[in-house]
Structure formats: structure tokens, C-alpha cells
Design a protein that fits this description.
2 copies of one chain form a homodimer. In chain A, about 40% of the residues lie in helices and about 15% in strands. Chain A has about 450 residues and is α/β, with parallel strands linked by helices. In chain A, helix 1 runs parallel beside helix 7, helix 8 packs parallel to helix 11 and helix 11 packs across helix 12.
Chain lengths: ~450, ~450
């Protein structure tokens, strides 16, 4: 039996062993999705804390059902380790590591590189390797493949198979989780694609095959570039609308009445999370290698870079109407999570507005029920204050930066002296009155 | 009975007389929609040819059912005239004139101005006036209102009512026509809004009221700015994808499998029609008055300005692969309409590519079953050639610029020496082969 047929058989009878590298927002839900279907999964993770949590059945990712994780660990379908030599037990290895940008917006490929070295040094012939981390088109072919071949001495397409299948995790999305979000699959060659479809088909309800890894890489970038550009556009229009005394939120709701050709995006203090602020810049990076300037992404990037500064100005404008300078005023920010009802402050736009205000000598406080403390880009640790009437009425300005549904808006607005509403949570105000100012 | 109650009563019992100024793509379908409901409509039009056509029941707009027009004219619910003194017979006047940009992308308000002068000089007290033409926010309030008041000696809100209600006509859309596309309505004050809702409610199935004319003006601009920005984005990404040997059409289809947060736009030789290439620049114009730069619209504009040049380069690239220069080659363009299956070449991107190629000394021909002749920006008249095997095989290059569904793609590709496909009509080709090159 050929290696290819052998692996397909193992997938078919659930005897395949899947390795998942990186047990974060992407890797752990995927590991649980496979384990739930009775497939043995070994999770590889650097953080001993996460390993201990997983191995004792304790969940640390919002989108996972606690009991499901506990059950698959108890039933020994899922275990976690930092020992990469266990990669040789795996028939398939899926990489779910982060791909951050460095301070100069250049992709930091070190996590993928390190994962490829670990896999290359440990995998057995006949292994299927898939990358899920968002990255620039050509990564799988021109970055991963050479490392895997060099470290393993094996040949792609003969001794192992290679695939790119981008994660589409949307933290906090109530409708679409790992298992029911259609998944793009782009492997090299027919054999690899057949294995990829069979394997992912075990855990994911709907797969969408494309012709190559680079097409799959481009799909993910297109999705997030679309979001970046449209959020940037609406942020820019919101600033203009404010100047023109137009309520941009009303305008967006009205535009949504068009039954075709429009999708609503909403303004806010900036763009956060792991995907939208980063992914498009991978593409911009590789485009430069093709002597090509992506002017839309560049423009969107500029708008976002300026947003915290503009939001600080908005707060200063509101304070000024109350006859107060930024200097010495106490400003209470409500929400540092990058979107509502999640506990993730990565690339938090609120944090950047807070930094800007502090630089202008405001006394800055924050409250976020999901994030008791957070470290900003400069390494400074912020600790949340409790949200009580005394703190609200003590602040010169209260700023809504995240629309957490647990906030009691009416009470907060009642107790506050001044409110800047960047998320349209105060519905009864048109654009501004003496107390509430909208973005 | 107050004037306001009187007008509401006339609307209620269908004795209201509606004037529609401008019987083009927007005005004529609207006039027919009212007339169909048994309301008397007087159409005001400068072109004697259009007046004669309407008054003999002959249709010249694709989205209108011929028989419906013929019937309402025969039943004397609709007539057309150039005599603006008949405005005094009307209880409501709706302006549906064009708002083009001049050569320097400055809004040409002369049609609206002229309509307002005609209305102001002729309307009786108690008239309802509504503008449907897309324009920059503040137009109704700061441009129209002063002209109407000055010319009529009447006062807005007391002697007449004023409204902005943007047209959402999408030529060729099979599902959404004038009557079943939800309509934004933004009038000054409660009385005017009540009249506007009652009147439009006679002809349009679903209305969406907003708080002011300027909010309504912004809605239309947001919708079309969204489209401009996204088409520009996908055009730019398509050019990069081509360089990276990625089929952008495959990528878009795959991205569409994401069940939330994505809307597909498709690349092409540029942006045409009356709305998308123009509307966002109205906003850019007024933004400058607020000391505000709209960088996204500006960037989108740059991409589009460059598209014809880049498309000419694409043709040159394909010809070069066949060892031919642009100079002296015969290039046959298929489709000058700005979108499929319509007869409208306004702002035609194909025409601009044709001009660029002719400037590089190619022999340029075109065929479009819906547009037998067309005049370009330089005043040059182009006449369509017939589409037969001889002409196809005579051309050094055949270029698909509009995806008219009547084109027999297979036959054309078979007979052609070389094909440049800017609309993804040749489905069996991945990115390029020696005969077919995709955008």
C-alpha cells in the first residue's frame, strides 16, 4: 500500500494521529474539534501554564465549551506537551502559531520558522503538514517548504505533503465556530489535496478547495484586507460626518436598507485584534518584492495610525466644552478589549487612546470586566479600576471604547459629568448635547 | 384646512399632481411608478425627442416595461412637456436631473440650479419639492433652499416643503426596480417628512425615513463610496495577483465561502456608469470646505485613473508574447457598456482603454450589440463593427471589456489569435496560456 493510501486509510478509520502546534485561539479549538470526533490529538505548546491547563481539562479559550475540552482530555483524545520529539508519532501536523508584525510592520516569521524546524527534524516520512497561520502569499511554497526539506532530508510531494488552510476564527462569534465555518484548503498537488480534504473533513463541516497554497493564502488576506479597508473608510467618513453634524450611525443603518451592494461597517476608536490590523500588511510586504505598491492598504494603515490621536482630540474637544483642559483631567475608559464581550486586548485601540491622553497629562483610568490588567506597547502595566458610582462621578470624562453588553449605559451616563461615546452605545443622543459627544 | 392637511388629503385621494423634472434613468421609471397608481404625472424634459417618445407611449429606458409606459400615457396619467410654466399645476415636484462632475472633478450643479430656478419661478404656495439627484451633503439645505426661496418669494417650511430622497436606480438589476427598492426619505421638519412619506408611499413599497436631508444625502454617498473603494481595492489586488500568478477570480469565489464579514467585488478594466465614478467626489469636494481630506476616496480615485493605462499595458504584454508591438496591431474590444447587458456607455472604462491603445497607434475596433456608436471624452465618434468570424480572426488581439451574456465566448476564443479577458468570461483558463491572458 502506498504511503498516500495508507494515510487516507488511517484518516478513514480514525487511527490517524494529529499534531497541533500552538494551542491558542486557533489551535486549541481545532484540536478539540478533531478530538471530539474520536481522533487522537497531541498539542504542542511552549507555555507550561497552557500545557498544565489542557492536561487537567481546564479551558482558557472563550469559544470552547468547557465540558467538551474536559471530556476529550479525560477520554485521552487530547493531550498537550512541549516535547517536539512526539511529532514523530503524528501522521499529520497542523501549524497554528502566531505571525505578528514587528515594530516596522515587517512580518515576524520566527514562529513559523521554528515550527518548521521542529517538524522537519522530527517528522516521519509520510507526514501531512498544514499551515493555518495567516501570512503572505508564497509563504508555504517559498518559506516553509525549503525549511521542511532541509531539516528533514525528505522531499515534498514524495515523502511528505504540504498544505495551506487558513484559520477563520472570529472570537466571540456566536454563530460560526471552528467546526461550522467553511474552510479553505489549498495543498500542493492532487495527492496532498486529497489527504487535506479527507483530514479536515473529519472535523470541519464544509471545505472549500482551491488550486494552490498561494491561492489559499491570498483568500485569507483578501478577507481581512476587505475588512481593514472598510473599517478605515467608515472611520474616516465618521470623522467628516461629525464635522458636518451628521450622525454617521444613523447613516449606516439607513444605507443597510439597500437590499444589494452594501455591507455595513461601524466606526470606532481604531482597529484591534490579531487579524485586521496585521494581515493586510503581510500582503503589502510581499507586494514590495514584486515592485508593487498597495495604495489602498497603505492609506487604510495611515487612517488607523492616526485614529488614537484623533480620538484623543475628540476627548479634548468635549473637555474643552466643559471648560477643562486635558492636563490634569481624570478620564475613565470603559473597555480595552478590541471588541465587545471578549477578553482580548491585542492591538487594543482603546489602549492607544489611553496612552495618547496620558501623554497629554490626563489622569487615565480604565475599567474592563473581562481584562483586569493589561500591558501596553511601552511595557507599562495598567490595572483596571472597579466600576462604581463614585469613580464614574469622580471622572471629568467617561469614554466608551468597547460596547460590552454588560455595561449599564443609562446608569453610567446619568452619573457621569461628561461622556464621549465612540461605539454608539448612547442611543438617545443624535450627535451631541452638552453631556454626551459621539464619534 | 391647512395647506399641509390639504396636500395630505390630495395624496390620500390620488388627486395630487406630481411633476417630475428630468425623464432619464431615474425620472421616467419614477413617473411611471406614480402614474401606474393612478396619480397624474407631468414630466418636464429638455429633449424634444424624449418628450415625443413619452407622449406617443414609446419607451427608451431598459428598466421600464414598454406596455406599462404605453398604458399610463394612453390613460392620460403621464404626459411630457418642456414648458416649465406647467409646474404651477403640480402639488409636488421631484427633481431627477443629472449631477455630473466637470473635467476637474468639481460637481456641476447647473442642472439642479436650473431646475430650482424653474420651480421657484413657477410653483404655487403649498408645493412639496424633492431632490433625488445624488449630490454632496448640505446641497438641499444650503444650495437648493436659497434658490427656491429667492426665486419664489416663498418661505421653506411655511409656504413650501423641501426633501431629499436619493434615487437608488441600478440599471439592469432584475430583482430591484424603482418600486421595490427601499427608499431613503429625509425632509426638513415633521410636516414635510409626513408629506414625503405619504407621497412616496404611493409609488414605493418601502420607505426608510431619516432625520434630515443631509443625513439622506450622506446615505447615498456612503453606499456609492463603499462600492468605489471596494472595486478600486479589488482592481489593485487583481493587478498584484496577476504578477504573483494567482487567479484573483478563484480567490474571490473562495472568499465568498466565508459566511459573514465579506462581500464580493470583481475586478475589471475600470469603473463606469453615472454613480460610482462620480458620487464619492461630491463628498470629497464638500469635505475640502470642512478642511478635511478624504484619503480613501482620493486613493481609490488614483487607482481608477490609472486603470485604463494599466489595461493598455496588459494588452501590450499579451501582444508582446506574440511578438507584436501595439503600434499597428488591430485590437477588437468587445463591449463598451459599463456593465453587462445594458446599453449605457457613460464613463465607460472600455472606451478609455481604447483611447489609450489608439494613442499607442493600435488600430482599434469595437463591437457592442447594445451600443452601435459612442462618443468619447475627446468628442471622437466610434462606430461599432459587426461581430463575425472574419473580424475576429483578422484582429491581432480580442479584448473582453464587458461580460454581455449574448457573447458566444467559446466561438470567439476559438476564432481569435489572442484574447485578453478583463471580465473572467473565459472560465477554462487558470491565469494565462499562450492564447488567453486574464486580468
Amino acid at each position: 500500500m502506498s504511503r498516500h493510501a495508507e494515510l487516507l486509510k488511517k484518516i478513514d478509520d480514525n487511527s490517524v494521529i494529529v499534531g497541533v502546534i500552538g494551542l491558542g485561539y486557533v489551535g486549541l479549538p481545532l484540536a478539540v474539534a478533531f478530538a471530539k470526533k474520536g481522533i487522537k490529538v497531541i498539542g504542542f505548546e511552549k507555555s507550561q501554564k497552557k500545557i498544565d491547563l489542557v492536561n487537567t481539562g481546564k479551558n482558557y479559550i472563550g469559544d470552547i465549551v468547557d465540558e467538551e475540552l474536559a471530556r476529550v482530555v479525560k477520554d485521552q483524545y487530547l493531550s498537550a506537551t512541549s516535547d517536539v520529539s512526539s511529532i514523530r508519532e503524528c501522521d499529520a501536523v497542523i501549524i497554528c502559531v502566531p505571525t505578528p508584525l514587528d515594530r516596522f510592520k515587517k512580518p515576524d516569521m520566527s514562529y513559523i520558522e521554528s515550527a518548521c524546524i521542529d517538524i522537519g527534524r522530527n517528522m516521519k516520512p509520510g507526514t501531512f503538514v498544514s499551515l493555518e497561520s495567516t501570512t503572505y502569499p508564497t509563504t508555504t511554497e517559498e518559506f516553509m517548504k525549503p525549511i521542511l526539506e532541509r531539516e528533514s532530508g525528505l522531499k515534498e510531494g514524495e515523502d511528505f505533503w504540504l498544505c495551506f488552510s487558513p484559520e477563520r476564527v472570529d472570537p466571540g462569534n456566536k454563530d460560526y465556530k471552528t467546526e461550522n465555518t467553511p474552510k479553505i484548503v489549498g495543498a500542493f498537488g492532487e495527492e496532498a489535496q486529497e489527504i487535506a480534504m479527507a483530514l479536515y473533513g473529519k472535523a470541519i463541516q464544509k471545505l472549500y478547495p482551491v488550486s494552490s497554497p498561494r491561492a489559499a493564502e491570498m483568500v485569507k488576506i483578501l478577507e481581512n484586507t476587505y475588512r481593514l479597508v472598510n473599517i478605515s473608510l467608515i472611520n474616516e467618513l465618521a470623522l467628516l460626518a461629525g464635522k458636518m453634524q451628521i450622525n454617521i450611525w444613523e447613516v449606516i443603518e439607513a444605507a443597510k436598507s439597500k437590499p444589494y451592494g452594501f455591507q455595513a461597517f461601524y466606526p470606532g476608536p481604531g482597529i484591534g485584534g490579531h487579524c485586521i490590523p496585521l494581515d493586510p500588511f503581510y500582503l503589502e510586504y510581499i507586494a514590495k518584492g514584486f515592485n508593487f505598491d498597495l495604495t489602498m492598504i497603505d492609506t487604510a494603515g495611515r487612517i488607523n495610525t492616526l485614529m488614537p490621536h484623533r480620538m484623543m482630540n475628540k476627548i479634548a474637544y468635549a473637555l474643552n466644552r466643559h471648560g477643562k483642559p486635558m492636563n490634569g483631567s481624570t478620564i475613565l475608559f470603559l473597555g480595552v478589549a478590541y471588541k465587545a464581550d471578549i477578553d482580548d486586548a491585542r492591538e487594543s485601540p482603546a489602549l492607544r487612546v489611553m496612552e495618547e491622553c496620558e501623554r497629554k497629562r490626563a489622569k487615565v483610568l480604565y475599567h474592563d470586566p473581562y481584562i483586569p490588567e493589561v500591558i501596553d506597547d511601552n511595557g507599562k502595566k495598567w490595572v483596571a479600576v472597579p466600576l462604581n458610582d463614585e469613580i464614574i462621578s469622580h471622572a471629568d470624562c467617561v469614554v466608551f471604547t468597547t460596547a460590552h453588553s454588560c455595561f449599564d449605559i443609562e446608569r453610567i451616563v446619568k452619573k457621569a459629568h461628561l461622556v464621549v461615546d465612540m461605539k454608539n452605545v448612547v442611543k438617545h443622543i443624535h450627535i451631541e448635547n452638552e453631556k454626551v459627544f459621539k464619534l
